[in-house]
Amino acid sequence: MTGPGRYWRAVRPFSLPASVVPVFLGSVLGVSELGFSSFHPAAFILTLMGVVALHCVGNLVNDYFDDRKGVDTGPYGSRGSLATKEMTPAGVRRLIAIFLVIASACGIVLTFTRGTFVPLLGGVGVLLAFTYTAYPIHLKYRGVGDLVIVLGFGPLVVLGSNMVQTQHFSWKSVFIALPITFLVDAILHANNTRDLTIDRQNRIRTWAGILGPSGARTFYSLLLIGAYVSVATLVSVSVLTPVALVTFLTIPVAWKLHRMMDRQEQIEAAAFAFIDAKTAQLHLVFGLLLSASLIPPVLIR
Predict the structure, then answer these.
(1) Sorting pLDDT into bands at 50, 70 and 90, what band is 55?
(2) Hey, how many other C-beta atoms are within 10 angstroms of the C-beta on 98?
(3) Is residue 56 a contact partner of residue 188, using CB atoms and an 8 Å limit?
(4) pLDDT of residue 95
(5) Is the sign of the CA dihedral 135, 136, 141, 146 positive or negative?
(6) pLDDT higher than threshold 60 for residue 75
(7) What is d(CA 67, CA 86) in angstroms, rounded to the nearest whole number?
(8) 3-state SS of the chain?
């Protein structure tokens, strides 16, 4: 395929809510703490653009090095643009450079307008984006890829987005990141469970491979459960208000995903291929509901 659409497909758009949701969550928490009058819309937009651009960098770097290693060969699922021949390696490198420039520009403006903590957190984000797959570190292949995803799309972004709005460190933002952290890891784990056989053939160590098919399915379900248990726990200790229990409206979706994973061997490969994308959809709805639950205290001031 040719045309501008290939650039959009190259960044794996189904995965981008994983970076959008924590920006919303951290920013809304800042509004909840300081009120609407303190909200900085330009800073929010720059944060969102910068984080999403870094996410695109991570996706492209992942595809680039997976292609070089020859591991992106599965017949189903979210294969990279190099594996599908929509992009050339040179084209992917150019896209990586473009998104790095965008992220850097956003970071520079935020550094001068919101604080010097921005390059520190942004630098960690860049480091995670490259070390996840790029040689010689390629953490994805060493069994610690989950740690990169958990840090990068959980506490790091929520904390950073909150600090952009409030300009102070908040442990509350770290704790509130826990529910979506479980779900973002579930997205990765769903992908790795689907690709378990291919990853083993290519000597890629993931938690799915370490746990085996049965253990991987159990771990996926535990990650889903963890999201709801963490919300209930945070409500019980008054970190979140009871309004946050609105996230429980997504339990039927989580149950369907659990059943799909549990019956993996009975489901056609083509149908199971998009388990990661479906998990990403749950993460998006859950995360937006969690963000919305932080708004009511502001409205009654």
Answers:
(1) very high
(2) 15
(3) no
(4) 93
(5) negative
(6) no
(7) 13
(8) CCCCHHHHHHCCHHHCHHHHHHHHHHHHHHHHHHCHHHCCHHHHHHHHHHHHHHHHHHHHHHHHHHHHHCCCCCCCCCCCCCCCCCCCHHHHHHHHHHHHHHHHHHHHHHHHHHCCHHHHHHHHHHHHHHHCCCCCCCHHHECCHHHHHHHHCCHHHHHHHHHHHHCCCCHHHHHHCHHHHHHHHHHHHHHHHHCHHHHHHCCCECHHHHHHHHHHHHHHHHHHHHHHHHHHHHHHCCCCCHHHHHHHHHHHHHHHHHHHHHCHHHCCHHHHCCHHHHHHHHHHHHHHHHHHCCCHHHHCC
d(Cα 8, Cα 231) in Å, to the nearest integer?
34
Which residue is associated with the tokens 């937009």?
45
The alpha-carbon radius of gyration of the chain (Å, integer) is 19
Cβ pair 244, 235 in contact under 8 A: yes
Buried b (16+ CB within 10 A) or exposed e, 220-247: bbebbebbbebbeebbeeebbeebbeeb
CB 128 within 8 A of CB 105: no
Within 10 Å of residue 85's Cβ, how many Cβ atoms?
Answer: 9
Q: pTM (2 decimals)?
A: 0.90
Q: In terms of C-beta distances under 8 Å and separation of at least 24 residues, what long-range contacts does 237-240 make, across chains too?
A: 239/172, 239/175, 239/176, 240/176, 240/293, 240/294
